[in-house]
Write the structure tokens for this entry.
Amino acid sequence: MTRAPLRLVVLASGRGSNLSAILAACAAGSLAAEVVAVFSDKAKAGAQAIAHDANIPACILSPAGFASRLDYDRALFDEVDRYRPDLIVCAGFMRVLSAEVVASRTQKLINIHPSLLPKYAGLHTHQRVLDSGDTEHGASVHFVIPALDAGPVIAQTRIPVLPADTSETLAARLLPAEHRLLVDTITLYAARRVEHEHGQVLIDRIAQKVPQTF
Ligand code: GAR
């Protein structure tokens, strides 16, 4: 029996290269999914133009005018829910989400973060890797929980840190690996193989002790 494609809503604040990677995989038929809407908190987000060009509803909801983070998040997710997403992907969505909107979506809210979590939650991850003298860097896709970048990690990708690396070269070398990581993780999810239960990632109903490596 063939399943309906996974309905994806993508949240993105910036450039949108991860969104492009998802769209390319959908168009190539390698990812059984469709992006049904893209939401941004910033009008100038590149992701908005990408969605526009792909004829996907491109929605901007600015936090200005909302009295609190929670008010904004409730309004945002009310809109998101109208698209009946199977999975909501934070792809460079640079806002901390309120516990309330996260807690009611534990199975279907994921985020890509440019570090080997639990290392380097938060910002400036590439520079922090260099400052720490790490020999390895990477990215993680995790289920979102109320604590920032702390949800169970589904999958990671790793790259070496080279002696001449700057935060810019590291970020540039990591980006294509991020794209593959995100697409491969969503592919696993689209096969209905990934779940989030009791703070753990389950794959094929088996609790994972370590993240998948893509
Ligand atoms: C990506 O590198 C993603 O890992 C990062 O933002 C970038 C978005 O790029 N996410 C975070 O830092 C989340 N804390 P993109 O707009 O080109 O997809």
